[in-house]
Amino acid sequence: MKEYKFYGWQTADVPAVNEEYKEIKNPRQLYDLLSEIWCADTCAPRMRDDWSKENITLGQCSITAFLAQDIFGGEVYGILRSGGNYHCYNVVGDCVFDLTSEQFKDEILSYENNPIQSREIHFGKEEKRLRYEYLREELKKVIRGR
Fold first, then answer.
1. Number of Cβ within a 10 Å radius of residue 47
2. How far apart are CA 1 and CA 37, in angstroms?
């Protein structure tokens, strides 16, 4: 099995529950597809200057986690970061995965006792909603192109 650097990759075996994304077999495959799409335009504006091909998951957490929720179901949780922002990740049943955790390099994040994140609150920021919609549409294009 190919090795990944994102948190929970070893047990990320939940299937797509949304018929629209039935081609995506598990979060590892979603990571592979998103690796072709993540870019400075999908990165959070405040982090955009630091985004690079070497750190493709930087600033991608909430839009990625909500897109993964669309595909696999479950809940999006957030780890409170200094500065008051939340780093988002997914929990589906007993499966916890964070497709964008590698942006933190060797920092250990706690994936326990964190609050559920609301799509309405996150997408209350229009720029974030627009980045999510762009990521979602680009994923659909990649899927159709296979």
1. 14
2. 23
CA angle 106, 110, 112 (to 5 degrees): 155
Residue 127 has pLDDT above 70, yes or no: yes
Nearest-angstrom CA–CA distance, 95 and 109: 16
- Using the structure block, give the residue that is written with the tokens 């060797």: 106
- Other CB atoms within 10 A of residue 24 CB: 20
Q: How many residues appear in the chain?
A: 146
Q: And the tokens for 138?
A: 């680009």
Tens-place pLDDT, residues 65-116: 999 999 999 999 999 998 899 999 999 999 999 999 999 999 999 999 999 9
φ/ψ (deg, to 5) at 113: 60, 40
pTM, two decimal places: 0.96
pLDDT at 1 over 70: no
CA 142 to chain CA centroid, Å, is: 17
Nearest to 100 by CA among 140, 39, 59: 59
